[in-house]
Amino acid sequence: MDFSRLALSGEDQAFLDKARSFLATHMTDEVRQRDRETGDNFDEGLHLAFGAAGYLEAEWTAASDGGMTRLQRRIWTLEKRRVHVPWVTWGTTAMVARAVVKFGSPELVSEVLPKVFSGHVRMCLGYTEPDGGSDIATCKTRAVRDGDSWLINGAKMFTTGAHNCQYVFLITNTDPKARKHKSLTMFLVPLDSPGIEIQGIRTVDGERTNLVYYSDVRVDDKYRLGEVNDGWTVLREPLNVEHGAVQAGRDGLQDTSVMMQQAGLMAEAVDHAAVCVAQADPDGSTVYRLGRSVARMEAALSTPNIFGRVAIAQTMRDISPDLMDLLGAPSALSSGAEYLYRFAPLMGIYGGTLEVFRNMIAEYTLGLGKPDYSAPLADRSTASRNGVT
Ligand SMILES: Cc1cc2nc3c(=O)[nH]c(=O)nc-3n(C[C@H](O)[C@H](O)[C@H](O)COP(=O)(O)OP(=O)(O)OC[C@H]3O[C@@H](n4cnc5c(N)ncnc54)[C@H](O)[C@@H]3O)c2cc1C
């Protein structure tokens, strides 16, 4: 949205001016360079500055409870994106904090929430395991009750941001004999607990994520969120938010789908390619060829909800090789196209793979029922003729 075309009220204009000047002061080239080097998508100094200035609390809190108004929230989001504020760890923290408020004890809420707002407490997601992440409910990490506490053993893969966080939102199995969605319990585990080991992993786009091992980690029962064996209830809401299965508002003050932040990187790479291609070949066929990528991208950016998420990730995968091809060797420099090419595969994996999302759309939105993975009928009759059952 282009705010220059909107007449902002004096209060909102002052909010915008203050936000711009705050970001110009704190979102420095050093922050950008550090972020590129670490792959953290988080900067502690910047995050604490947001906390001290009240931005974290105001962004998290509903307008009716004194937080930013819907318009101010939109201004703040777009201004942060414009200067590439690292976003991952605040995203997970804000999401988990809602679950803590809903399912945690008052004692836990008062331990955690003020420090979330000051920036000193950050929280990450511990769902995926080395054996698989698409079906979270098959979780093998065990939590066993021991008096007033629990002993946790297992491993979680891709716990992004764990090395910058104080707590992990950890889904565990507390009843291996129960049906899978009735076997889970959620904990908010302090990451400085003895028995936790965090190992860094760098992905192909330079992002840092983690493999986290839990060996006899003792956690007090006060860190349990929700009821024992009812972790799926606690997990469902944050999962829906991450999956983008939440309707956007009709006032245009919200992203059309999740992953718009990442889509912005695609838009920047396409804009950069447009400038280069127009200069090198003002009336040639490359401009026409670039048009195909632009059209694909615009369609993806306008596609709502869960469909938009699939469209953005798929479009990024499809157009980034073409952008690199159009730009030639210089695409490896600062065009954004080469980075997009490395980033695109991950976009179709984290928070759920493209295949899983397509299945979800087919099953729940289009009402086509569960996918049938059995062999097609012709193959089945061949198999039975060959004595295979
Ligand atoms: C950069 C990055 C950051 C991440 N951050 C986090 C994080 O912070 N916390 C966290 O918990 N996880 C995180 N993840 C994990 C991510 O959510 C999982 O990778 C994802 O859910 C897929 O799980 P998997 O990799 O175990 O693949 P698997 O589930 O093993 O799937 C393997 C393949 O089988 C396909 N498949 C699986 N099930 C189905 C199905 N039902 N229908 C059709 N195809 C299917 C998949 O599409 C995939 O191609 C991150 C991943 C990446 C890459």
Automatic annotation (TrEMBL):
Q: Which InterPro entries match?
A: Acyl-CoA_Oxase/DH_mid-dom (IPR006091), Acyl-CoA_Oxase/DH_mid-dom_sf (IPR046373), AcylCo_DH-like_C (IPR036250), AcylCo_DH/oxidase_C (IPR009075), AcylCoA_DH/ox_N (IPR013786), AcylCoA_DH/ox_N_sf (IPR037069), AcylCoA_DH/oxidase_NM_dom_sf (IPR009100), Mycobact_Acyl-CoA_DH (IPR052161)
Record key words, sorted: FAD, Flavoprotein, Oxidoreductase
Acyl-CoA oxidase/dehydrogenase middle domain sequence ranges: 124-209
Molecular-function GO term, any one: oxidoreductase activity, acting on the CH-CH group of donors
Report the superkingdom from the record. Bacteria
Domain Acyl-CoA dehydrogenase/oxidase N-terminal residue range list: 11-119
Q: Where is the Acyl-CoA dehydrogenase/oxidase C-terminal domain?
A: 288-363
Entry's EC annotation = 1.3.99.-
Q: Does the keyword Oxidoreductase apply?
A: yes
- GO CC annotation, single: plasma membrane
Cofactor(s), names only, from the UniProt record: FAD
The catalysed reaction is: a 2,3-saturated acyl-CoA + A = a 2,3-dehydroacyl-CoA + AH2
What family does this chain come from, according to its entry?
A: Belongs to the acyl-CoA dehydrogenase family.
Protein name, please? Acyl-CoA dehydrogenase FadE17
